[in-house]
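User: Structure tokens for both sequences below?

Assistant:
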Amino acid sequence: MIDAQRIACRAVLLPLLFAALVSPTLLAASLPNSLDLAPDEIASSRPNANAPTQTETGSPTRNLAFLAQAGDSLSGNISQTGNALEAFILQSGYALEASIEQHGSHNQGLIVQSGSYNQARIEQYGAYNDAQIEQTGTGHSSSVTQHGRGLSVLVRQYR
């Protein structure tokens, strides 16, 4: 899939994923608390959730980490090493914290938060990495640190 198609796909899917995240059905569901998740599974309803650390193996596998949380006093962290990695953290609630750390090149990190007292941090080391943070609510705090060349960052905060 070319980059334009990936961006268009995300533009459509992210609002749907976020709507699902804040839905009463998901909030009422008792999702299991498990640290034994595959990279493409969702970690949810954990006060301090960590997506599995991923290291590139050189195989053509997709390196995607996705973490979705809804509730209060949430903390989520994704750490990845390799190339062409993708990390997404979606959070909804009160007193949210999210962190993505990526080492390598051509990596993408995205944090989307809705609620109050949001804190988001993305650290990327390598070339041609992309970081994006979108926050809706009150009490926003964002931090992006990037080392390398050909880097891009976008932070949007809405009230």
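Moving on to the next sequence.
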Amino acid sequence: MTTLLSLLLALATVLPAHAAPGAHGPNGEHLDGPAATTDVGTVPRIETFSELFELVGHLSGGELSVLIDRYDTNEPVLGGTLEVEYGKLKARATFHADVGDYAIDDAQLLQALSKPGKHALLFTFTAGGDSDLLEGTLDVPAIAAHEHGHDQRWWWLAALPIVGIPAAMVLRARRPAKREARA
């Protein structure tokens, strides 16, 4: 029996470790696929600039949220008018004074932009006497739509055979042999 346990231990140290399909690490990351470096890049994002303005936006929370600064000073441009075009779709943004962003919440536009891929957008921005067109690409990665629906309460069931079989073998080896009753 000791030989069998020694053999199992030797195999465990020699064989490479592999994660089972759907296995998760301590931070919820998938262990069966390529390692992810960070979560940055999973939120669809757009950045563009012109001689006058710099635009940064992200698609999340049911809206396309856009911040606009003066290109030369990085000073936020508040209270302007922003429109966005995507193909034949066009929507006007609502300015949120409390946050300082321009929010586009047109359902038809958001549905089109939520699909994975690269989406060419044209922004028309007017503030005071300044007006500009800004072109950019919203990159929507496929991973942005990935959701975890795994039930992690039953992970221990997978460990039962790994622990149970060797334990049963050890217990069986240590059990004293039955003595036959003589009549």
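User: Anything stand out in the second?

Assistant: Residues 34-40, 145-152 have pLDDT under 50 and may be disordered.
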